[in-house]
Amino acid sequence: MQKKILVVDDSFVMRTLIKDIISADPDLLVVGEAINGIETIEKVRQLQPDLLLLDIEMPGMDGIECLKRLKLLSPCKVVIVSSVAQAGSQQAMEARKLGAFDVISKPSGALSLDLKSKKGSDIVRISRRALGLPE
Predict the structure, then answer these.
(1) Tens of pLDDT, residues 60-94
(2) Which pairing describes strands 77-82 and 51-54: parallel, antiparallel, or unpaired?
(3) How buried is 12 (Cβ within 10 angstroms: 0-12 exposed, 13-18 middle, 19+ buried)?
(4) How far is CA 30 from CA 9, 25, 57, in A?
(5) Is there a contact between 110 and 11 (Cβ–Cβ < 8 Å)?
(6) Could you write out the DSSP letters of every residue in 25-69?
(7) 18 alpha-carbon distance from chain centroid
(8) What is this structure's pTM?
C-alpha cells in the first residue's frame, strides 16, 4: 500500500520538482499540495497524509507555526525541505524540537532548480525512513 505524501511549498516550481522526485518511488503517492501553513492544516484534515514535505518560509503561516499546530492535529511525519533550514541553523533546530523527522536544505536557495540532481535521493531516502519503509 502506498504512503500518502502532502507537498507544501509556496513556489509552484518547487512543488512540481518535489512531486516529480517523490512520484519516482512506487511506494510513495503525492495526494496533494499546499502553498502555506493555513492551507496545509486544511489539507491534512481532508487527506490524512502519512508524511508532509514542508517548507519553512511561506506567506500567511510559515512552516514553524504549522508544525506547532500539526502536533495537536495529526500523527503524520514531517520532513522539512527549506532553504533557510541549513544544518545547525536556528530554524532547523526549532523544527526538530517541534517534531520534524529530519531537515533537508535546498541546495541553491528558495528556488533550487537543481533540487532533483543534488538532493533528490536524500528526499526519497529520508521520506522512506520517516515512514518506516526499507531504504
Answers:
(1) 999 999 999 998 888 999 999 998 877 778 888 99
(2) parallel
(3) exposed
(4) 14, 10, 21
(5) yes
(6) STTEEEEEEESSHHHHHHHHHHH--SEEEE-S--SSS-HHHHHHH
(7) 9
(8) 0.94
- Contacts with 45 (C-beta within 8 Å, 6 or more apart), sequence order: 73, 74
Rg (CA), the chain: 13
More confident residue, 35 or 112: 35
Q: Which amino acid is it at 68?
A: K
Contact 4, 51 (CB under 8 A): yes
CA-to-CA dists, residue 54 to 1, 13, 30, 49, 80, angstroms? 23, 14, 13, 12, 5
Q: Do 79 and 44 touch, CB atoms closer than 8 A?
A: no
22-61 pLDDT, tens per residue? 999 999 999 999 999 999 999 999 999 999 999 999 999 9
- Return the residue matching grid coordinates 518560509: 57
